[in-house]
Design brief:
Number of domains: 2
Order of helices and strands: EHHHHEHEHEHEHEH
Structural class: alpha/beta
CATH architecture of the largest domain: 3-Layer(aba) Sandwich
Shape: globular
CATH class of the largest domain: Alpha Beta
Largest sheet: 6 strands, parallel
Number of strands: 6
Number of helices: 9
Helix content: 40-55%
């Protein structure tokens, strides 16, 4: 364990794939959004491959605005409804990893403050983990921020609310997006392999530490 992790005051957690099983069918959801965009006569936006869905929706909305079409808000509402439906459909209390509550409780007992930062909606996360806010000091789903991670504002808001500098903060997530967000925000980073990403991708993203899951995290933080 890198020695600087022994001076950590705050841990920022991703949710899906990190604290709970990742069950959303992103491939099917992507196709639904592309089909919706095509119905508005939109061209596929140029985005990273695979494109992040929220950014795809935003790019489509901008296309509509740029052609001075007043249907941008209508498209956005329908697209977000597709995302909300898929998230809600995939959300179940059974998705929460069996060790999640104990890990969060143990870290709290060690005096470590915690936040959950997710690109998901608050209602879908609460369906999986109804008492989440009893375990963490800050919960920031996508509707609570202007732009969700990888925008560093998502992380900065959490650190501001917890009154802690980046150097005493760790971002923990199951996707390179989480690692890159933490790096840009100046935090330490831990990649976990409990989602769908392999160790090599995590290390390539620059994770300071890679773990199989968050289960061993409490014993590494003091």
């Amino acid at each position: 364990m890198p020695p600087h992790f022994y001076d950590i005051e705050v841990i920022l957690f991703d949710f899906d794939g990190t604290l709970a099983k990742l069950e959303i069918d992103f491939k099917a959801l992507r196709e639904e959004i592309l089909d919706l965009g095509a119905s508005y006569g939109l061209d596929d936006p140029i985005l990273p491959d695979p494109p992040y869905l929220l950014e795809m929706v935003g790019a489509f909305k901008d296309q509509i605005k740029n052609r001075q079409d007043f249907s941008a808000d209508d498209f956005y509402t329908k697209a977000m409804s597709l995302i909300d439906h898929r998230e809600w459909e995939a959300a179940s209390p059974e998705n929460l990893f069996p060790y999640t509550r104990m890990v969060l409780k143990t870290l709290h007992e060690k005096g470590v403050k915690q936040a959950v930062l997710t690109r998901n909606s608050g209602k879908s996360v609460r369906r999986v983990f109804p008492e989440l806010e009893n375990y963490v000091e800050v919960f920031l789903p996508r509707e609570k921020v202007g732009k969700p991670k990888p925008d560093i504002g998502h992380l900065q808001l959490a650190m501001e609310l917890l009154n802690v500098p980046p150097g005493k903060t760790v971002m923990v997530g199951d996707h390179p997006l989480d690692i890159l967000s933490g790096k840009k925000a100046g935090t330490w980073t831990v990649g976990v392999l409990s989602g769908r990403i392999q160790e090599g991708e995590m290390r390539e993203a620059g994770a300071d530490l890679v773990l199989s899951d968050i289960g061993s995290l409490p014993e590494l933080i003091s």
